[in-house]
Specification:
This protein has 16 helices and no strands. It is mainly alpha-helical. The chain folds into 3 domains: 162 residues, Tetratricopeptide repeat domain (Serine Threonine Protein Phosphatase 5, Tetratricopeptide repeat, Alpha Horseshoe); 73 residues, no CATH class; 61 residues. Helix 5 runs antiparallel to helix 6 and helix 13 runs antiparallel to helix 14.
Length: 309
């Protein structure tokens, strides 16, 4: 399918929704070009083409400086970078700078209009990103829980305004699952501050977004990876990772996660075989654009693991 056909179909899908009354039409309905930018930016982001993603999200900030959306995704760029360099405090500061701006912008909009759906939605996402950063990078679990509570609250407000908007379920489902699956040692404290969830409901909600979400399908799948890992469902974890690598072959983060999955499944030899195959394919005509350096790093890690066992 040609690029023009795809963009045309997306543009049609993003025209102001005729079933929404004029007073309910918000950012994406009045600025359909923003949806095109977001889809392209997310594609670049998940491919780890971070320079191009930065240009797109910076443009969104320039075009809509009072909105949180561009700042949310500029911050997310630094989350992806920090996953490969967790001790880099500069990356953490840059993440927090953009995420803090997104939160400030969202709050300012809601002071003017509490019915602004997209202000609620992207304010919720900013808090969710902060929670995710604290869990996956800085390991600040209490801070993650507090940010997650705020995100859940704002997500619920967005969902009240548009109950059928599936992407709202990412934050709601993620919070339901992880607060419902907290370790016993912190559950009493979590209960006191209102962190009560239903892990089974959360799992179903995340799977719904992964299948049917508008902009959040990949984000929901990334959250599901955390669910499968937490549940020790390593086969499901690996299967989903292979599908994501097929879709986004140039993202090095997915290969680091997959290498860990081979270790957890006690399939180190199989992991070495898979990474060797990808290394041999690199550079061939028609081969996916994989990050050769990271393939070699992860293969070496697996070989080191095999040598210790």
């Amino acid at each position: 399918m040609g690029r023009g056909i795809i963009l045309g179909a997306v543009a049609f899908a993003l025209l102001p929704a005729p079933w929404l009354p004029a007073e309910e039409q918000g950012l994406f309905e009045t600025h359909p070009e923003l949806g095109l930018q977001l889809r392209e930016g997310l594609q670049r982001l998940h491919q780890y083409d971070l320079d191009q993603a930065d240009r797109i999200f910076t443009r969104m900030v320039k075009d809509h400086p009072d909105r949180p959306i561009g700042y949310v995704y500029l911050g997310e760029i630094f989350w992806w970078k920090a996953l490969l360099d967790k001790r880099n405090k500069r990356l953490a500061r840059s993440f927090e700078k953009h995420t803090g701006r997104a939160i400030d912008k969202g709050k300012a909009l809601l002071k003017k209009d509490e019915s602004d759906f997209y202000a609620w939605l992207y304010l919720a996402k900013a808090y969710a990103n902060r929670s995710r950063f604290k869990v996956t990078v800085t390991r600040s679990y209490l801070g993650a829980l507090v940010a997650g509570l705020k995100g859940r609250s704002h997500n619920a407000q967005a969902a009240e305004l548009r109950p059928d908007y599936i992407d709202c379920l990412i934050g709601i489902g993620g919070f339901n699952y992880f607060s419902g699956a907290l370790p016993a040692v912190i559950k009493p404290f979590a209960f006191l501050i209102g962190a009560r969830g239903d892990r089974e409901l959360g799992l179903r909600q995340l799977e719904t977004v992964a299948e049917k979400g508008e902009y959040g399908q990949t984000t929901a799948k990334i959250v599901l990876l955390g669910v499968y890992y937490s549940e020790k469902r390593y086969d499901d974890y690996s299967d989903l990772l292979f599908r994501m690598i097929e879709q986004f072959p140039s993202n090095p983060v997915f290969y680091t996660w997959l290498s860990n999955a081979f270790v957890q499944r006690k399939q180190v030899d199989e992991g070495i075989r898979v990474f060797n195959q990808w290394i041999e394919e690199a550079g061939r005509d028609g081969a996916p654009r994989r990050p050769l350096k990271f393939l070699e790093i992860e293969k070496d890690k697996l070989e080191l693991r095999r040598g210790r066992s």
